[in-house]
Amino acid sequence: MSNIQVLIVDDEPLAREGLALRLSEFSEISVLGSCKNATQAYDMLMLNQPEVVFLDIEMPGQTGLELAQQLREEGHPTKIVFVTAFREFAVKAFDFDAFDYLLKPFSDERLKECIDKLSSASDVTDTVRQHKKLGALLNRKTGNSIDSFMHSLEVSHNEDLHELRQIISLKSGSQWIRVKLDDIVWIEAAGDYMCVHTNSETHIIRKTLKQFEEELDSVHFPRVSRSAIINITKLSTLTPNSNGEYVAQLSNEIQVKVGRKYKFSIDELRPQTKGV
């Protein structure tokens, strides 16, 4: 269960203390602090980034509704639970995407209902965060996005994970293509598309070079210019030309230009058994 950090904002000291005491009974809630006005609350929100703010509406100076409007205009992700004794503010409160609205005095059951909703929403947020983390890890380790890796798993029969790590799934049009990493010779940017050149054919893929950089292991697939990535195992020679750049000689008599700033990393990565 997630630990939900919350901030309490109310101009009445007893209201702040009472709500903090009631929230302390929920193990999933951690009260970061309390504020007596909107200005103080805004500063603490910017500093501590709590997930939830329990916000009174009627306060001297800037009201809770005005603070909520400011947060939404600035794109602040904090969930807002309005806490007020005035029923007439309810409709207006939800205009500011309020997560919940607690009408004073509220029962323990009503507070628990609000906390349960917050816990469920927090679990969904954690799941999305873990999904993104898994996607990044999967890209680094296998050269696949989650979608392409799932596709590989769906069409695989007796392949183990080691074998899947040697394959990248690419979407060409409406079709998925499975390409062995060892078969890729180089990747070339061509406008809004990428040309993935293999030992036997070329695949046209709707993707950016930066996306390929993120998905492929840079040790085996280094970038050599603004528009090309090569398979380092296919490199046979690296020769300077007259304008200060270099030419990488790959298998199948393919030549790829190498920018000057990329040359040194290529020197470090290329197989030691192959000379210039």
UniProtKB/TrEMBL annotation:
Gene Ontology terms for molecular function: DNA binding; phosphorelay response regulator activity
Domain of life: Bacteria
Family annotation (InterPro entries): CheY-like_superfamily, LytR-like, LytTR_DNA-bd_dom, Sig_transdc_resp-reg_receiver
PROSITE patterns in the cross-refs: HTH_LYTTR, RESPONSE_REGULATORY
Domain called HTH LytTR-type: residue spans: 168-272
Keywords carried by this UniProt record: Phosphoprotein, Two-component regulatory system
Modified residues (4-aspartylphosphate): D56
Domain Response regulatory intervals: 5-119
Protein name as annotated: Response regulator receiver protein
Organism (species): Paraglaciecola polaris LMG 21857
